[in-house]
Amino acid sequence: MQVVSNQEKSLPPVSVVIIGRNEAGNIRECVESVLKMDYPQELLEVIYVDTGSTDGTQNIASAAGARVVEVRSLSPCAALARNTGLKESKHGVMHFVDGDMAIAPGYLKKAVERLAAGDAASVIGRVTERHSETNWISRVLNIDWKKKEEGYINAPGGGGTFIRAALEKIGGYNVGLPVAEEIDIGIRLRAAGYRICLINDVMAAHDYGVNSVWELALRYYGSGRGRFRILVCRDVPEEIRKSSWKLPRQAAIALAVISLMLFLGYGYEVLALLFSYPVIYPAVVVLADWKNIVTKKLGLDAFLYTYIFGVMKPVIFLGMVRESVEYGIKRLK
Predict the structure, then answer these.
(1) Please, which pLDDT band fits residue 9 given cuts at 50, 70 and 90?
(2) Residue ranges of the domains in the chain?
(3) Does the N-terminal or the C-terminal CB of the chain have fewer CB atoms within 10 Å?
(4) Which residues contact 160 (CB under 8 A, 6 or more apart)?
């Protein structure tokens, strides 16, 4: 698909694929935001791919104006939903958006114009958090987007806008990955000679739906379960697999050191180390993330983003252990 350039005063038709599961509280706003974009409506195809909602999301999406495609799977994931949208849609330019997002009115036109330059197969914009002014957790989680620098990047995020032919050439998303599917698609796009570009415009407003530290811990726990599934997934780029092995290796080293210290009779020293970890770690965080915290002036939020991830590593590891146990039980049956 050759994108018509802006100089020709013409815009290409675009397939907008919304994906979601149990998004009854968000899906209407998402669909309506697509229909209110600064883009000719006659050039838009709007599809909602649902992966097993039980809260009536499908009916809400249909009433709001989207064509609903339902997918039944024992392992629903974003990759499966996006591939279904790729198969069900018809236009040469595609935009993926999650059901808990509201796309910015002017984004798609700017993304298409950037694709028309011909040097990128994927374009994304920045994602903001709806409740960042009132919810400190949402504000901190959104730091990941503030860290990203405009220009060519390694992987898309939050969906994004694509040339269909590029996605089809690399075989779409890896449905075996429950997480990190966008990192994977970025690796494979770049390996095929394509580029991914971040433009300095808001692409969408998002809602993590995390309102307490407990919910945040559950989110990290779930990510741990996903990390283990990466380890047993076939056709995973080595870069992703190595990243998933990093935490188990760190845990193994820590447990080995603690066990050795206990064996040698240094029990009190072990307790001192464990209790001092949350205190000593802030200095480590500042040194490790100096660029974002100080140089880019992202301050306390950037510090908390990195600090919380470090403190939550045991929770992530527990998620990996839980998933490994369930995986082992299934293999024995």
Answers:
(1) low
(2) 6-206, 213-332
(3) C
(4) 95, 96, 111, 122, 123, 124, 196, 203
Name the CATH topology of 6-206. Spore Coat Polysaccharide Biosynthesis Protein SpsA; Chain A (3.90.550)
Count of C-beta atoms within a 10 Å radius of residue 325: 11
Report how far residue 15's alpha carbon sits from residue 48's, in angstroms, rounded to the nearest whole number: 11
Question: Confidence band (pLDDT; 50, 70, 90) for 239?
Answer: confident
Separation between Cα atoms, residue 290 and residue 141, nearest integer Å: 18
Give one DSSP letter per residue of 217-266, joined into a string: HHHHHHHHHHHHHHHT-SS--HHHHHHHHHHHHHHHHHHHHHHHHHHTT-
C-beta separation of 293 from 287 below 8 A: no
pLDDT band at residue 5, thresholds of 50, 70 and 90? very low
State the Cα–Cα distance between residues 53 and 23, nearest whole angstrom.
Answer: 8
Residue 20 pairs in a beta bridge with 50
21 and 100 Cβ atoms separated by less than 8 Å: no
